[in-house]
Predict the 3D structure of the following.
Amino acid sequence: MKNENRSKDKMHLRHSSVLRWSHLRLKSTLTTAYLPTIYALSTPPGTKSAIAVVRISGAHSKYIYHQITRSRLDPIPRKALLRSLYEPGKNNLLDKALTLFFDSPKTFTGEDLLELHLHGGKAVVNSVLRSIGSLNDRKRGIDIRYALPGEFSQRAFQNGKFDLTEIEGIRVLIDAETETQRRCALSSFNGENKERFALWRQQIVDSIAQLTAIIDFGEDTEIDDIENIFQGTKSDMVQLQREIRQFIKKIDKSSILQSGIRVVLIGPPNAGKSSLVNSISNEDISIISRKPGTTRDAVEVSIDVNGYKVSICDTAGIRSRSTDDIELLGIEKARKKSKQCDLCLLIVDPQNKPFINEDLKQVINTPEFEDKEIVIIVNKKDLLKNDLELKLVLDQVERELRRKHPVLAVSCLTQNGIEELIEKLTDIFQRLSETTDDSDPILVSQRVREILHSDVLYGIEEFFEFAGENGDVVMASESLRHAAEGIGKITGDSVGIEEVLGVVFANFCVGK
Ligand SMILES: Nc1nc2c(ncn2[C@@H]2O[C@H](COP(=O)(O)OP(=O)(O)OP(=O)(O)O)[C@@H](O)[C@H]2O)c(=O)[nH]1
């Protein structure tokens, strides 16, 4: 009898364990069928353009189509149809537009979706938006309203079309200004991250299942077997912890692509720093003058260098002899800026010896420069008589710096060597961001990064504490549950997901 009860207890425990974990495998089953039909202008508002696209999503999309086109026939799904659009109930022609209807569920939002490709004039767009809004009639159960920022994407998420990492990827893709930022978005947008997170979660859930077996069958299990199971889960989690840490390292490296690689130009007055900023950016950003000490303050601009977002900073020429207070302040700022940069370009004037003056040597010999990328650029190559003279200058510069940094020669006047310099910079940018031709950078939101630290890694670390000698199986598996739920928060598969939706969709524009 006693045995029978124990066996029943175990059955109950096992059943409750299964229930506890089953939600980890559940996908979002939310449906948006009960929500109002939404509409919005999906192309930029307030500007004149050839085409403007109004997007409509929800159960009343077809109704809107009928009312606004006066057509009794249903739209043919996925077929572009040219239709006249009228103000509902009036004879007022608004526009002739291309209409595209997608029927649920194979649409971006999962709902019926209608697109109106209008002529992109403000008055046309406003009249069509007003007409759609006028069809709202709650008393008759026709609930239509203008969409909130990111609401189309939110519906897509709620209907299981995308997970949160993919949705965040879409936002980054829209915001991408440079080629590498576009590549960054792909890891999330094309579902690579989603697969990675799903795999991690499965590994954790498998380990929890193993530990649950110990809890459920503990008394019937040999001590050796328990030890083996514990060891197995521990080594799986060691491996996973390593993988997650590497992933975080990579996203930290990739984040430089979003914020911009900080490049600072330093050098003696008149060496050609401002000229080089203009040559690299191909724009007239900095003032160039024969007069030494022209640049007195640090001038910082954001530019695109070969697909990389770069924040380039021109600084005051570094010399200690100046008596000008403003120039001295500028020199101090140049020193500070150079300490904060990712890459320092030291510009040398071949007409002035020593090429690297003591003030500059002092700057680059500070501890902050120890691991910094530094490139020495000998400018005004055009003033050197021949290759031999150039070689002598390059050798001398290398000697002065004890061959510690790469040296390149350019001429901002003739643009000779600028292309090679940009190639060299691109190599360094690749290294700094760990981007290569076969390895795309990874971008995840700050939200994801924080959850990886505070929930996933934290849960795994806590697991190791409880799984130590005389391990506490219940607490160890509880810690892993915390880690698995963290991944659920990242992808949106978790219970209590409402709290994160606001964070994810808040930065979207209307119409997305
Ligand atoms: N011959 C030649 N002259 C150059 C070259 N690059 C710049 N210069 C000239 O050098 C002078 C100084 O150039 P800037 O770009 O203002 O130099 P800078 O280092 O920013 O000067 P400061 O603001 O005084 O620190 C100007 O007269 C430029 O036209 C070059 O490659 N060849």
